[in-house]
Write the structure tokens for this entry.
Amino acid sequence: MSSYKGLKEAALRHFKDAAHLDSGRPDGEQSADHLLGFAAECALKALVCLHAAKSGSSGTTAAIHINELWQQQLSLLRQAPSLSAVLQNVPFGNPFSDWHVNQRYNGNRPNMTEPVKKHRKAAEQLLRALDAAELLNRKAPQ
Amino acid sequence: MTLISSAPREPVLFDAALQRAIMFAQAHSKVLGKEPLLVRDIYGRISIAIDDREPAHKEIRVHLPVLAAKFHAQLGAYSPGESESDVFLLASERFCPEDLFKAPDIFSIPDGDGVRLLEQQLIGKDWQREAFPKPTCKRAAFYGVKGGVGRSTALAMLAKHLAEKHDQRVLVLDLDLESPGISSMLLPGSGTTYLGLVDYLVEQAVGQGDQLSVRRLSAQSPLFSGAPGWIKVVPAHGADAGDYLSKLSRIYQGVPSGPSDFAARLNQAISWFETQLQPDVVLLDSRAGLHDIAAVTITRLHAQTFLFAGGTPQTLAAYKLLFAGLHRHPNRVRDYRADLQLVASLVPETNRTPYLQKLKTGFYDLFADNFYDDESELLQAEPSSSVTQFSSQSIPESFNYSQDDPDAPHNPIPINWYRWFLDFDPMGNREAWQQSEIDAAFGTFLTSATSLVLKQ
């Protein structure tokens, strides 16, 4: 499993690249959307790492992507009081249910503006929750 | 052979750690900036936040490893670690630096010479934040740092007085959620409601609080049955409380896409009841002790707050803790200090004057230390440019009272205790009440409290 530090850096990098694609080119939305899914996945897996470091659970989530990870992990993470507090702005419903890792094989898709907007907001909410979790407990795993 | 033993070092404790961190930040202000920001995590460990996005701060990173080691050595267990990444929170490593550097909960530490603090707590921060918009109706809160001081009885008496003598529509909300009581006093027997405030708060979290019928959540008290005034009560729970503890444990956090913290949930709930029932006055029976509900009620709800106190040293000591906590946020104190009023509950039958004098003296010191302006500081705070164009408007308004000022908030409004208090139930056997006895016990309180509540 990747380290906490690596997952956080990857989440920030994917989001930054997605924002770049989303802001510059009309045809960048579809690739931006793909990266937003990975940004959210890495941020959520970093939160799982934080939780696992405290709970002693394995935190194994390697083979699962955000479309499944959201429902599988967030309800568990919300049971931890400290993570419950930082996740209060993260919605219960899964904004990535329409995202799939195999969409990278798709041809060009029209009408990507709304999905990108929704996925970007959700990825931002997870990344901000990660920021907040680091403040709550400074003994973050490396 | 000589055994050299070194005495174990005394551990650095919670309060000392913050003092050491403040001194450290002051001593290294050239590197950390004039207003360093400390962040204390949920276990009390302290970090230093640095906005390294600014060009002036780019060069400081070279100093951070040495500073981190020094900081760790000084704070002991309250340092998050000895490496640079443990001690320092850098803006460049965060997704949204503004969430940290512009956090609304940052405050300047009193006497900290510019050092600021951001507390990280799972609960207990709501009360430090800005007050909510002022409601259209009047609100009053009843609070006692210790329970069993006749707070709820006084509330019931004031509710009746306002409805009966001043034609007020009075809504009573039981905020003593961990120890509900006022509703059983005002809605005896089968008169209670189907649901209560905690049910509203739980349903609010899943977005359906406003779909509840207010008629299932409130009931009219028979304590006063005339018109046009009335007394309606929202209890903590309904006749069938259901799994009350499970519900109670789910109300103290913010809601996704809804109120961001417990205080916002509570304010939204109170506002909803006010909109639905259109009262003139809302009386909030706040829970006793140093608790979130009490702190939020005092600091954010625009309520005239009656602070109930007996004459025991324990009561004064507990209020000292509360006031000192409030005093840590002096900018917020200015918003609500004029709404505070001490009430001397259960004043004994004998030696009343010295009892009240002693209480007044003790609370004068607490109010002066924590809420009253230091007039010498106010004069110093005047801008020098105002000297040439001096006018009465340029003098900062002072909030200060002499010890014996009868209108001072530290001067207790008495509720006189009598032996018949032991059996007193506002709802029970009302024919047996002697109005002269009621007046002797509650008369001064009802007159003064009514004046304070209605003048809002």
About this structure: Confidence is low (pLDDT under 50) at residues 1-5, 383-393 of chain B. The first strand of chain B starts at residue 37 and ends at 40.
